[in-house]
From TrEMBL:
<feature type="transmembrane region" description="Helical">
    <location>
        <begin position="179"/>
        <end position="199"/>
    </location>
</feature>
<feature type="transmembrane region" description="Helical">
    <location>
        <begin position="473"/>
        <end position="492"/>
    </location>
</feature>
<dbReference type="GO" id="GO:0009267">
    <property type="term" value="P:cellular response to starvation"/>
</dbReference>
<protein>
    <submittedName>
        <fullName>Carbon starvation protein CstA</fullName>
    </submittedName>
</protein>
<keyword id="KW-1133">Transmembrane helix</keyword>
<feature type="transmembrane region" description="Helical">
    <location>
        <begin position="442"/>
        <end position="461"/>
    </location>
</feature>
<dbReference type="InterPro" id="IPR051605">
    <property type="entry name" value="CstA"/>
</dbReference>
<comment type="similarity">
    <text>Belongs to the peptide transporter carbon starvation (CstA) (TC 2.A.114) family.</text>
</comment>
<feature type="transmembrane region" description="Helical">
    <location>
        <begin position="390"/>
        <end position="411"/>
    </location>
</feature>
<dbReference type="Pfam" id="PF02554">
    <property type="entry name" value="CstA"/>
</dbReference>
<feature type="transmembrane region" description="Helical">
    <location>
        <begin position="293"/>
        <end position="317"/>
    </location>
</feature>
<dbReference type="InterPro" id="IPR003706">
    <property type="entry name" value="CstA_N"/>
</dbReference>
<dbReference type="GO" id="GO:0005886">
    <property type="term" value="C:plasma membrane"/>
</dbReference>
<feature type="domain" description="CstA N-terminal">
    <location>
        <begin position="343"/>
        <end position="455"/>
    </location>
</feature>
<feature type="transmembrane region" description="Helical">
    <location>
        <begin position="80"/>
        <end position="104"/>
    </location>
</feature>
<feature type="transmembrane region" description="Helical">
    <location>
        <begin position="337"/>
        <end position="359"/>
    </location>
</feature>
<feature type="transmembrane region" description="Helical">
    <location>
        <begin position="417"/>
        <end position="435"/>
    </location>
</feature>
Length: 506
């Protein structure tokens, strides 16, 4: 437990210490009007309090990623905790902060616009395609995972209260497949409504209730770990010391930590999906001085959630082989369901699972909303008119429903790579902004270089990419990283006239 508490303490210290350093490097301008005020439209640009925005931001960015990812990452051992802590402080929270603040400085602009402005038009076109693809994958993935968890609960309740069995009620003729289809349809209908209506009508009103469920889930699972007598790091099967954190303990041989762990644990450490969501809240922030609390702070909150579920993965099952078998038989959702029911009982476990369910749902609806806004920006379609919103939303959901028929495991692999690649580009965008205006760019350049190496090596090594032999893939990844880094410094030139984006707008 001491290792867990130390990790949480490091995350909190990261917010107060490194977060303030990042804020000073960016140089906020509290007197500069934000888009929420000078571009208010009653639909997407709506001023809201920083506490409400922080909660919405956390719910938007925290899908099943900070739960499923850390559970899968826990198979590698305690090293997963290191990536969550240091990835969150030095990469993920920095990524989210600069994405949010640059969006505020650019009239609530999305990531393709920022990429085009600071890295050039070709990168803008690439990001338009990548971001829409990522959002579509997120929307589809975040339909499947909550629908699966809700199916488990519903089927067990219908089966005469035999919670935990995952059985079928034969008398009523209800099958898990039928229940899954019903929940999938319900979630899609909610997404359509939430995507079309003004952001403060549904998202701004019911998210506080969702936040209460999220809080119960987070505290409840932590309570279960502490007070249910479950030995910490039980699945590791050894006393954990400092050296253990650097060992690969995955039960399946041949799965290297580099780069797989850094793709597996995305949300909770760093996630490009956040770059698509953060501009939504940048359009609602009332003052630049709220940026660190909203953007950097929400990422730290997600890191704490990720740490809790990583500890569940490291402790609930007696061995890592047992947890891996559970994942193979039912995806990480089975680990969530089994551990929640096992540690909190039927009632508490169901509430905890519902807390997990709301994370992907609240991320999925804003994923489709962000996709609608990206397409609208590209075609210059005003979104104040409901007919024009439908013009984009209907084809978008038709494509999403078609993509949902693809095997979930394949979707997740492509989602993982697209997610981290988007994060990498956003880090380069932030680095370019700092470099051009003679600010200390290394706070973004170093994590950008690191993530470039992760994504290029993964693409070279993984079956969804080129499937090269591991050692060759590592060399290819490092070589491409060097080329991209050199191109960054050779093609961009510092500007001596200061930062015009920081000037007060009328």
């Amino acid at each position: 437990m001491l290792w867990f508490l130390l990790c949480v303490a490091l995350l909190l210290a990261g917010y107060f210490i490194y977060g303030s350093i990042i804020e000073r490097i960016f140089k906020i301008n509290p007197s500069r009007p934000t888009p929420a005020h000078h571009m208010a439209d009653g639909v997407d640009y709506v001023p809201m309090s920083k506490k409400k925005i922080w909660l919405i931001q956390l719910l938007n960015i925290a899908g099943t990623g900070p739960i499923f990812g850390p559970i899968l990452g826990a198979l590698y051992g305690p090293v997963a905790m290191l990536w969550i802590v240091f990835g969150c402080i030095f990469a993920g929270a920095v990524h989210d902060y600069f994405c949010g603040m640059l969006s505020i400085r650019n009239k609530g602009a999305n990531i393709p616009f920022l990429a085009g402005k600071y890295l050039g038009r070709p990168v803008k076109h690439f990001m338009n395609v990548l971001a829409i693809l990522l959002l579509l994958l997120v929307g589809v993935v975040f339909v499947a995972s909550p629908a699966s968890l809700l199916t488990n609960i519903t089927a067990d309740l219908l089966n005469s209260g035999a919670v935990g069995a995952g059985a079928v009620n034969e008398e009523s003729g209800t099958s898990n497949a039928n229940i899954l289809m019903i929940w999938t349809a319900i979630i899609f209908v909610y997404y359509i409504i939430a995507t079309l209506v003004p952001i403060d009508k549904i998202i701004g009103r019911i998210y506080p209730l969702f936040g209460a469920l999220l809080l119960f889930m987070t505290v409840g699972m932590l309570f279960g770990l502490i007070f249910e007598g479950i030995p910490m790091f039980r699945s590791v099967g050894m006393d954990v010391d400092f050296a253990t954190f650097f060992q690969n303990l995955h039960p399946k041989e041949g799965l290297p930590i580099w780069p797989l762990l850094f793709i597996t644990i995305a949300c909770g450490a760093i996630s490009g999906f956040h770059a698509t969501q953060t501009p939504l809240m940048a359009r609602c922030a009332e003052n630049e001085k709220e940026g660190r609390f909203i953007f950097y702070g929400a990422m730290i909150g997600e890191g704490v959630i990720a740490l809790i579920w990583c500890m569940v993965g490291l402790s609930f099952y007696e061995t890592s082989e047992a947890m891996n078998a559970a994942i193979v038989s039912g995806t990480p959702s089975k680990v969530v369901y089994d551990s929640a029911i096992g540690m909190l009982g039927v009632f508490g476990g169901i509430l905890a699972v519902l807390g997990v369910v709301i994370l992907p749902i609240t991320s999925g609806d804003t994923a489709f909303r962000a996709a609608r806004l990206l397409i609208a920006d590209f075609f210059h379609l005003d979104q104040r008119n409901i007919a024009k919103r439908l013009m984009i939303a209907i084809p978008l959901f038709i494509v999403g429903f078609a993509v949902s028929k693809i095997d979930f495991s394949i979707l997740w692999r492509y989602f993982g790579w697209a997610n981290q690649t988007t994060a990498t580009v956003m880090l380069w965008v932030a680095a370019a902004y700092l470099y051009r205006y003679n600010k200390f760019h290394w706070v973004c350049t170093v994590p950008a270089i690191f993530m470039t190496s992760v994504c290029t090596t993964f693409l070279a090594y993984a079956p969804i990419g080129f499937g090269l032999e591991y050692q060759t893939a590592v060399y290819v990844g490092f070589a491409l990283t060097i080329v991209i880094t050199l191109a960054f410094f050779l093609m961009l030139k510092p500007i001596a006239d200061g930062d015009p984006d920081s000037e007060t707008v009328s």
